[in-house]
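Please review this one:
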Amino acid sequence: MKLYLSVDMEGITGLPDHTFVDPALHNYEIGRKIMTQETNHVVSACFDAGCQQVLVNDSHSKMNNLLIDELHEKAELITGGVKPFAMVEGLDQDHNGAIFLGYHARAGQPGVMSHSMTQGVRNFYINDENVGELGFNAYVAGHFGVPVLMVAGDDQAANEAEELIPNVTTAIVKRSITRSAVKSLTPAKAGELLRQQVSKALDNRANVDPLIPPKQPTLRIEFANHGQAEWAAFMPGTELEPGSCIVSFKAKDILEAYRAMVVMTELAMKTDFS
């Protein structure tokens, strides 16, 4: 059995605010250490359950946060920030299942550090369905016939996962009080929970179906301001919807939609606020 592990940071145990997830700020080194420890708990549980391969994709910000010298020796790691498929780089039909670790709720929703890719995005829509990172990534997995077996993070990420993916296993390592305050398990207790839930998720894998994306989807991204939408609309094939901050793109499949999303959000970040 071959498993894929996408590891974000905002949903990692004990991390309440951006000082733990921004490399320029004082709590970041603590955050990346706990992130690496938490990844190791999941990887170990996968191998204990009989997996032959576990591919880990660092999926936060510049995507070079995990400490490879402290990572489980049997894991393979994708690291670095220029990836065509960002949070799901390396995921393909050869995997038997995916696990999303350290995940958070989508933009505009309750939950610790809730957002969708960047702070400039208000909403992602696949056709008329509002999805966050979790849903978009699950659709890419579904394109390859890969089910998302488990989602770990805060309670709001778990709620979002359960609404999207019937029979998914969740692991709640912290509960949101506000967007920047949590009631958290300790890393030791979270490790116990994660190992337990990985075992449960793998036992339950036959009951989880891939989240199949729509064919030829229309991607619509609502940005926080018009300048961001203008930058995103520079990408060929896009349309800035009149009277709004929404940019749409008709894709041939979910993979093209995902790559378009990566380009559009990167362009939008070039907006000058001065």
